Amino acid sequence: MTLVTFQGSVGSGKTTTARALTAILRSRSIISYYVDIAVFHGFAYFVIATISHIVQKLGGYRYVGNHYLTLWFNNKSLLRKVYRISLLLDIPSLIIAVMIRVYLKILLCTLLRRCCTILVDEGPLTAMAIHYYFSRQFNTIRLFKHYYRIAYALLFESTKSQKSFFIMLEQPLRSSIKAWIRREKTNLVDFNMISTRLAFENILLNYLSESSGILVLRLKVASIGSVVAEVTRRILTMNTCCANP
Predict the structure, then answer these.
(1) Coil, strand, or helix at residue 210?
(2) Closest Cα partner for 84 from 146, 155, 177?
(3) pLDDT of res. 53
(4) In sequence order, what DSSP letters do the residues of 159-186 get, joined into one string?
(5) What does 96-159 look like in DSSP terms, one character per residue?
(6) Among residues 54, 142, 48, 62, which one has the least CA distance to residue 90?
(7) Ranked by mean pLDDT, which of 147-161, 171-185, 189-203 comes out on top?
(8) Alpha carbon of residue 239 to chain centroid
(9) Coil, strand, or helix at residue 65?
(10) Which of 71, 46, 41, 42 is CA-nearest to residue 56?
(11) Is residue 123's pLDDT more than 90?
(12) Cβ distance 115 to 1 under 8 Å?
């Protein structure tokens, strides 16, 4: 069983690369699953999404990126009021999301003795980075510490397999900002959020690599095609996946 987690800044090609790689591996008769974890799951997502839909309809707010960013860019004070309960709800929601989307697939592949590849687009590490940023803004660091412990445990447990590793897609900050503006068709950009998230992910990945020997592949983003080709080559040549009979 192979677990590959994609990290990187906004617009670095994580989703495109993960989805393309899933299709390529399946074409080679390798059982592959695409999994999106990110942030705000289950109960927390319901709260944020419901409020976002209401204010978009009644207040004329523009949808930006996702529901929590829609609130962040349109009405920070409203997000501040609901953030604490959303963070609290995201603790059990993250556990459930990772258990169902990742651990259950690992268990099934193990029981069936099948060689599987799970490609995670932004796992618990991204969730930690985003919640860290908002917790600093809204003074919920004490609550974030509880979230961090649980999210880190889920992250570490998922990397215990010898065939688990991270892929960090790297590009200049200005490229991330341009990609965000182009993708969302908006000039609403939070430079601090992008840089804080990237720094948080890099620090934790460096720590995991140095303390636990977890493999982290850092790839420069030139084009989506070149990234997909390089990631595919590395996975196959590293013998981290195999074709099922």
Answers:
(1) helix
(2) 146
(3) 94
(4) T-STTEEEEEEE--HHHHHHHHHHHHT-
(5) HHHIIIIIHHHHHHHHTT--EEEEEES-HHHHHHHHHHHHHHHT-HHHHHHHHHHHHHHHHHHT
(6) 48
(7) 189-203
(8) 25
(9) coil
(10) 71
(11) no
(12) yes
Name the band, by pLDDT with cuts 50, 70 and 90, for residue 243: low
Chain length of the chain: 245
**How much is the CA Rg of the chain, to the nearest whole Å?**
18
| The token pair that represents 194 in the structure block | 């992008």
Q: Tell me 10's DSSP state.
A: T
Q: Using a cut of 0.85, tell me whether the model's pTM lies above it.
A: yes
**Using an 8 Å Cβ cutoff, are 140 and 84 in contact?**
yes
Exposure string over 196-218, b if 16+ CB within 10 A, otherwise e: bbbebbbebbeebeeeeebebee
- DSSP letter at 187 equals -
What is the mean predicted confidence (pLDDT) over 135-157? Answer: 93
Domains and their CATH numbers in the chain = 2-237 (3.40.50.300)
Confidence of residue 162 (pLDDT cuts 50, 70, 90): low
Cα 210 from Cα 17, distance rounded (Å):
26
Q: Which pair of structure tokens corresponds to residue 201?
A: 């992910």
Do 20 and 34 touch, CB atoms closer than 8 A? no
Provide the CB-side half-sphere exposure for 87 (13 A, CA): 26
Read off the tokens for 129. 């980075």
Say how many CA atoms lie within 13 Å of 238 toward its Cβ.
17
User: Rounded to whole angstroms, how far apart are CA atoms 53 and 147?
Assistant: 26
**pLDDT for 55-102, tens place per residue?**
999 988 888 878 999 999 999 999 999 999 999 999 999 999 999 999
